Every structure is written in structure tokens, then in C-alpha cells.
Amino acid sequence: MTATNPVLVMEGVTRRMDGRSILRHIDWTVEADQRWIVLGRNGCGKTTLMRIASLWLHPSSGHVSVFGEELGRTDVRLLRDRVALASAALAHQLRPHIIARDVVMTGKNAALEPWWHSYDDDDRRRAEFALERVGVGHLAEQAFGVLSAGERQRVLLARALAIEPGLVLLDEPTAGLDLAGREALMSTLTELATDPTMAPIILVTHHVEEIPDGFTHLLMLRDGETLVSGELDTTLTADNLSACFDMPLSLERRRGRWTAWAAAD
Questions:
Q1: pLDDT tens, 145-184?
Q2: What is the domain count for the chain?
Q3: Sign of the CA dihedral with 222 first, then 234, 134, and 50 last
Q4: Alpha-carbon span 13 to 70, nearest angstrom
């Protein structure tokens, strides 16, 4: 797939719930070689946007296409097999006694239990390779519930990668991690972002400190609308960030990482 064949396209996407517009008129194109950050404060529509991008939610109006297939005019079950979604919320849905390798394998069928489907040796090898890729291969036989928060997030990342996806969605993957866990995961995400064979990645966050080095583009949301969209280096500015969070902020970049703080009066 080349940059002339977008992986994800949204045109005029609006989502209304209970009479309220969660998203309004979102226009967004994700190309195959891009790594996107979706940034905004709590309640701005980020998770709803990811549910639409992962084909689990339809917009109230507008058009969505993934891999060239339009949502509403294709069998989404086939497309979902190519979209990987990793979310911190998923960790709470998994039974703590399932071993890490089985957690990864269940991603093949978007399942929560390994006994819901049949798996073979190729599935197990693929799961083990994915765990090695994110640095937790040695935990394959460990129960998910005894892992640290950072280790669990790496296992969930491996779960997303094991299906060899065409699009990877990461919804606040560093949420709840301590400093060491966050930095270890950030290092892994940087490695993935700079891998030219990697599928396009979309990472959702509300902290600029959680933007890994190697990400290329930014979609900034405010109250369900696009505030800015484009290359990260030109769109992530103190002025845009201040408008996004409704307060004066200062912004600094050092060694590929960002830091923001309240600007002095």
C-alpha cells in the first residue's frame, strides 16, 4: 500500500448520542506510512473517534472508509480482522488467570477467553513472537493478573501486533503506568513507530509527555471538533495546545519528547 491509497478516511463524520453531538464534521485521512497522535482533553470525543475507526461504531452522518472499503457498504467483520485496537480498559475485562500467551492469541478473534475458539501451533508461535517483539517474551507463561501494569500493557500491545494488522489503534496505552512502566512502553512504541514495515499507528492521549518519538502527525480535538490536523512538528505548538485545553500553556521539546506546563502570568 502506498501513500496514494489511504488506510483510513473520514469525511464529515458526526456522531450524536442522546441529542448531543460527540463528534462534529471530522475530516481525517491516515496514510500507510503515517503515525498519528490524537490529542485532546477528557470528553472531547477521542474514544468515540477510535470506536468509529475500529468499525465498532457507525457515525450519525458522514462517510468512513478503511482499506478502501466504505463503512455501511461492506462486511465489517472482515475489515475488523485487519484493525488492531489496544486499550487500557481491555486489561480489566480479561480474567487474571489467563496466561500472557493466551491473551495474545485471543486477539485473533477479538475474544476474551481462549476456549471460545480453537488455536494451533502457528497461533502460539505468532503470539510468542509478538511478545518477544515488545520485550516480554519471558512472560509468555505468566498469568496476566500477576503482571505489573506496564507488563500488562506490553502484552496487550503484543495482542494487537500478533494479528499482523493493517491499522493499529492505541487508546491511552500508558494510562495508569508509573514512570518506569511508562518510559519502557514509550521506548517500545518509538521502536515500532520508526519501523518502516509497521502498519500505520494511531495513538490517543491527553498528555504531550506521552507522545513517543517517531510519531509524524497530530489530530487535535476540542469539544468534538478538529482544532488542528497535520504534521506534528508544525501543529503541536504552545498556542494550539493552549486553545485545546483552554488555558495558557508553555511547550518544550527536548531529545524528541515534549513537555507542557502552565504558562506564567
A1: 999 988 998 999 999 898 888 999 999 888 888 898 889 9
A2: 1
A3: positive
A4: 13
Please tell me the predicted confidence (pLDDT) of residue 1: 37
Contact status, residue 85 vs residue 169, Cβ threshold 8 Å: yes
122 assigned to some structural domain: no
Confidence of residue 62 (pLDDT cuts 50, 70, 90): very high
Give the tens place of pLDDT for each residue, 214-244: 999 999 999 999 999 999 999 999 999 999 9
Give the DSSP letter string of 126-175: HHHHHHHHTT-GGGTTSBGGGS-HHHHHHHHHHHHHTT--SEEEEESTTT
User: What is the chain's alpha carbon radius of gyration, rounded to the nearest angstrom?
Assistant: 18
Residue 173's pLDDT is: 87
User: What is the domain range of residue 211?
Assistant: 1-80+203-265
pTM for this entry: 0.90
72 Cβ contact list (under 8 Å, min separation 6) = 58, 64
Report long-range pairs for 107-116 (Cβ below 8 Å, ≥24 apart): 107/159, 107/160, 107/162, 107/163, 108/162, 108/163, 110/80
Instruction: Tell me the three cell numbers of residue 248.
Output: 495558557
Cell numbers 448520542 correspond to: 17
Sheet holding 61-66, edge to edge: 20-30, 8-17, 61-66, 69-70
Angle at alpha carbon of residue 183, lines to 181 and 189, rounded to 5°: 105
Return the CATH number at 231. 3.40.50.300
Is 129 contained in some domain? no
pLDDT in tens, 9-20: 999 999 998 888
